[in-house]
Amino acid sequence: MIENAFIPYRAYWCTPFVRWQGALSHLHSVRLAAHVAALGLDARGVDPGLFDSGVLGMTIPQQNGFYGLPWLCGLLGAPQVSGPTIAQACATSARVMACAADEIEMGRSQCVLAVTTDRTSNGPHIYYPAPDAPGGTGLHEDWVLDNFSYDPLAECDMLQTAENCAKRWQVSLEEQNALVMRRYEQYEDALANKEDGCFQDRYMLRPLDVPDAGFRKTIASLQGDEGIHTTTREGLEKLKPVKDGGTVTYGTQTYPADGSAGMVIADYEKAHELSQDTGVEIRLISFGQSRVELAMMPAAPIHAATDALVTAGIKIGDVAAIKSHNPFAVNDIIFARETGVDPEYMNNFGCSLIWGHPQGPTGMRAVIELIEELVMKGGGYGLFHGCAAGDTAMAVVLKVS
What is the three-class DSSP state of 312? Predict the structure, then answer.
């Protein structure tokens, strides 16, 4: 259990998420992350000079990405900061938060900048030299597309892992469609205007001026997430499974996206100093991880969540709100069956099934939304969990007081 890692209230931010090949597809993801982190910190009155370390999460290579976190911090005005750049597929956000929390817990840092970013658009084509091959011909891959379509260990694509779980738990196409409708309704709740604005206004940098590739001038403005299609029951019912004999359609799975998210993780003193409301305390309690049998990826969060809850010393019934990274509707259905939670009340205000999956920042946006939901509820324990490539998963337990 973690004792001294806190997130200052509203010392976090997120760009709108944009379906790949959309309005953010031309931007270098490290430079975008630095740009929006500077905006987020400035809007919250946080001086970049306060940070004594940082962690960057990014899963898709970008030019000069070798320089990682130090480059990003130099760009945003924190040249004193060093730290690692982490890639753990879809679990990257949780791992970034865990690494930052460890820095605080071990007393190595007092205030850590945790940033996540990715651009699935225009993914790199990589050539691997092989001088001993016939004619010296090397190997190559399209980083994004080839790794989506083939797990070298399980020897299948990610969609097959969802079909494997749907078969084992006997999850029907109709059940998946019904859950997608519920998730879309929850996302619409996040857009509803209240007296104090909509839910997304609590954390999202919007409207977001989109710069050109050189970050010299504004070429567009994002009012919110881009590329989300209107979802209806009739529309879902028209879609056929992607695989012959399968159950998963293009409507019951997520889609690649671009975006960035960040947060401050600090010890109690510094978190209290930087909080936008000192009456709200956000404490990171525990993390969990798991790995299941080959080609059963959507089942991995069940075990990661259990691990995190056991470490926290609580049970699933003690949790006031749950968010998941759910690349497939199957994820939430089998998690609910195995844990006994009501899937209708998971993922209030949105999830990656609806707002897309830019990989690195996906989990961090979910955790930020989890925090805001708990604040609206008056506090309590929150659980985030999500699967990741390699039939793995990570989970986070936090508490809002």
Answer: helix
